[in-house]
Amino acid sequence: MTVTQNAPAVRTHPGPTDDQAVLIVHGKDRTGIVAAISAVLGKHDANIVQLDQYSDNPHGGAFFQRTVFALDHLKARLPQVEADLKATLAEGFELEYTLRDMSAPKRVAIFASKDDHCLLDLLWRHRRGELPVNVAMVISNHADTADEVRFFGVPFFHVPSAGPDKSAAEEQHLRLLQGNVDFIVLARYMQILSAGFIERLGVPIINIHHSFLPAFIGAGPYAKAKQRGVKLIGATAHYVTEALDEGPIIEQDVIRVSHADTVADLQRRGADVERAVLSRAVRWHCEDRVVRHDNHTIVFAG
Amino acid sequence: MTVTQNAPAVRTHPGPTDDQAVLIVHGKDRTGIVAAISAVLGKHDANIVQLDQYSDNPHGGAFFQRTVFALDHLKARLPQVEADLKATLAEGFELEYTLRDMSAPKRVAIFASKDDHCLLDLLWRHRRGELPVNVAMVISNHADTADEVRFFGVPFFHVPSAGPDKSAAEEQHLRLLQGNVDFIVLARYMQILSAGFIERLGVPIINIHHSFLPAFIGAGPYAKAKQRGVKLIGATAHYVTEALDEGPIIEQDVIRVSHADTVADLQRRGADVERAVLSRAVRWHCEDRVVRHDNHTIVFAG
Amino acid sequence: MTVTQNAPAVRTHPGPTDDQAVLIVHGKDRTGIVAAISAVLGKHDANIVQLDQYSDNPHGGAFFQRTVFALDHLKARLPQVEADLKATLAEGFELEYTLRDMSAPKRVAIFASKDDHCLLDLLWRHRRGELPVNVAMVISNHADTADEVRFFGVPFFHVPSAGPDKSAAEEQHLRLLQGNVDFIVLARYMQILSAGFIERLGVPIINIHHSFLPAFIGAGPYAKAKQRGVKLIGATAHYVTEALDEGPIIEQDVIRVSHADTVADLQRRGADVERAVLSRAVRWHCEDRVVRHDNHTIVFAG
Amino acid sequence: MTVTQNAPAVRTHPGPTDDQAVLIVHGKDRTGIVAAISAVLGKHDANIVQLDQYSDNPHGGAFFQRTVFALDHLKARLPQVEADLKATLAEGFELEYTLRDMSAPKRVAIFASKDDHCLLDLLWRHRRGELPVNVAMVISNHADTADEVRFFGVPFFHVPSAGPDKSAAEEQHLRLLQGNVDFIVLARYMQILSAGFIERLGVPIINIHHSFLPAFIGAGPYAKAKQRGVKLIGATAHYVTEALDEGPIIEQDVIRVSHADTVADLQRRGADVERAVLSRAVRWHCEDRVVRHDNHTIVFAG
């Protein structure tokens, strides 16, 4: 057996994030963007800790930059950095940016139904310090996981779904969510969100779903995968858009299966991939590593 | 998002195991073993559901066979099947066998310390029906996980370790375990078991530990792995023998890491591999898929 | 650097296959099949080296068994073994079987076009002794790879494709192939085979094609995958049926890609997966490890 | 089968690298480095195509930056860019840099012995345009691969090894290599290079060797791995230093094996991992993606 005495407490965040900020810049590529940004940061004595930059086409394509920088007394000085950045990027660049103090974690609501594998994996990882996020609440259309969620110290709200008309439930959701969360995770939430709800909510929504090679459309995908004899079972985490299951992909993975796996085995193995893929996607979103562009993502996975 | 209405409850055991038994036969290879065994099963109208056979050398090597068979009214008829098998295998074969009614799950005690990732993963998989096992108890030298374990409906016993002399703690362990469990899982249990304890206990013990390419001996392996710049982090599940960390390997896996991962990141990713590898090893042990031979294993992973 | 002096020549076949035969039995499950088969083998003093058995449903499902056995003076005695097997399996079982002397490798024709990665990988593995197969010929609609193929000591036939009417080319193919090959591998062969050709040819055909999560239909799949930002690129090897790309899957795999990969990078990485997946599928087919059933396969991958 | 008409020729380099240069900067971290570098590039109207930056400790650690930039008429203007960079980095920074015109591939000599899997994989990939490198020569202590190497249009030199005194062979190596190559790849070269040779040669040397969990020291590692029943077989590519097999790791990977694999199977599977790992390491080295620091590497794998 492994014996490690006096092992230090695991702190899995990538180092102290106090006095660190993350800046995402995204837009039309042009000569001089990196220099302009780093000049602003240099002027404020900010030390660049990590910088990832990518252009999808050096001749007039799109520009993406993620910069983590350290700055003493960040909270006091960040507004001035931001004002300078804004002024600089306004000078002839066609760029958007987001700037965030990394000591202030994003706030998330997790939506779940009966299946608990993705939900619990996120709550465990959060409790272990693996996810730099503030879990504001769990919302479920089933009451089953209430005790378990509250055991983690997280508020649980039961909002039953009542037939095809989801407007009443969605009103309840909006009352709970608006102003309280920065993004939503659908952790095997088995209800469709209306386009109107997505729009009114106005924050990013991450979903996880199973994936197969080839694809199996409709109900009972695992039974179809069994019938077709696929050798891999996968999962895809993506941002939710109005086009069902068609939003920008954040992360994907697969595992190997065989003819000896029953439909239930495929579901069990699929569940393992789902929770692994979803937790990576959530982590990367929390750390501002994912930039959406057209219908795909740039992931500075680090 | 994915919508599957009226999805059936997941039952992840490989089909109904009522009226099914698993037979492991292991020993010196000889012509006619498969025929002799299947003749006995055929005589009792047992239907062979899955049969895996392996010889490590067709010319006088070792023979391994795992057979799952279905037999109506199994409980009533198994003793007679066993008697016939015993008589048959005694006729000139040098073979050992185990025969087990699959409807009676093995009983396990899980040993843990402060780190909870492997422990919780096992408890959660058990609750989902993924592990055909009876979790008799959790024993820990720390009290931290007591509430959580009991939340799963599993007895928790706190047996503190008191300095280098472990004999008092081991006596307590033996009182709790003897007669009550069929195997032990060390789920990141950070204490060494004495050779005497292992012998008196007399049941298989499964351990999980981290693994690296190359190996890093001694304290702080993750810090050493970081310093050496390894690109993979792994874990190994094995049976415990008197030779520390040298017992027969059941399962191994790795994940990819990079220079950007901190020591804490490596520990976090290592924890993911550990729980995945341990849960597979435990599952295979529960299903009698692992046969020990010399210092290695034959795994009919299915 | 690694230094191994006097390393023995690598012989990658799974041990000496002289005097070994492989038996595949496949059909309706019934009690007593394993016993009946092993009794026949036992009667002839055949030693079972490896036996894999699988039932897709213990209650009236399909039965699959692959058995490798050793028998001195196999060539002389195999006809009598076969006669006994045939008589036994005719007694009330609804089973098909194939029985093959493993010292006589199957004969293959490889079809290729301009892309050489799959073709060369197969030829090279064959030369190393990794593929127990007799490469009878390479047929290509382009002359580009002629020298290289012949360098491997393999006959090369150039059969150009001439527009939409493939009947003349297919007649040439049939003249070259009929009686000379046991199966065909399409190693990135960029022409459609007509249903009539497949039927007249009458031997199994293995194809490799790229696979994506989600699927991208039509021309330019890699460009579409890039646009969609997929994080995995895969390949699928399958038997060819009249339904284009819809035949039973033998093997699949994927590799991870990122936003930084260009379309050309995706093609390059896809090529790596393709050759790996195809070579595994071909190897398993050569070793009679793949059983077709309905539209899927049972792979006793060993 | 897959049919793609008029598929464009694969060009796997990451886009046109004419008029592109790659700059590596490495040394003591300090505020303002990124700004200083990008200001120089901006002054010359160079457009940054890709920038990866990493600090191993924001408080006084080491700084690493890889920058790819595009500049019209690069060949004419690069000397002036370099002069400006040199002057800038001399102002109070403790940094080293390398600057390279990406249209001028590095020159490599590949060393091989009898085993051809790594050698051929590199030659194939080079011919396909996957490796931006100039293969100047192959040197082998065996003549076996001469024809095959020359078939690729690459000069082949046979330098036999004659017993324990390697000085004569090493003199021959140096005469062939000095001035002609920028790095060396040991593609399963089964001779030890002396420390004196490594020093006199003065260019990076990349080696590939097998890796196991746990490690097996000495001769016959695959036989030992089989005996120990490992479930994974791996390979490690690293830079050669005077400490045998202990140099900075560039890349590692593993594949899964089972008890059913013979020693020969393990060697075959190991060979697949070796060639995959080595080709990635060589590619990354050719693209200046690997920075050595202490005894490890920073790999901007892209």
TrEMBL record, chains A, B, C, D:
Source taxon at top rank: Bacteria
Family: Belongs to the PurU family.
Root EC class: hydrolase
Active site, renumbered: D245
Protein name: Formyltetrahydrofolate deformylase
Function description: Catalyzes the hydrolysis of 10-formyltetrahydrofolate (formyl-FH4) to formate and tetrahydrofolate (FH4).
Domain (ACT) ranges: 22-102
Pfam family, one: Formyl_trans_N
EC numbers on record: 3.5.1.10
Keywords from the UniProt entry: Hydrolase, One-carbon metabolism, Purine biosynthesis
A single GO BP: 'de novo' IMP biosynthetic process
Catalysed reactions listed for this entry: (6R)-10-formyltetrahydrofolate + H2O = (6S)-5,6,7,8-tetrahydrofolate + formate + H(+)
Molecular functions per Gene Ontology: formyltetrahydrofolate deformylase activity
Keyword DNA-binding tagged: no
Pathway given in the UniProt record: Purine metabolism; IMP biosynthesis via de novo pathway; formate from 10-formyl-5,6,7,8-tetrahydrofolate: step 1/1
Keyword match Hydrolase: yes
Organism: Actinoplanes awajinensis subsp. mycoplanecinus
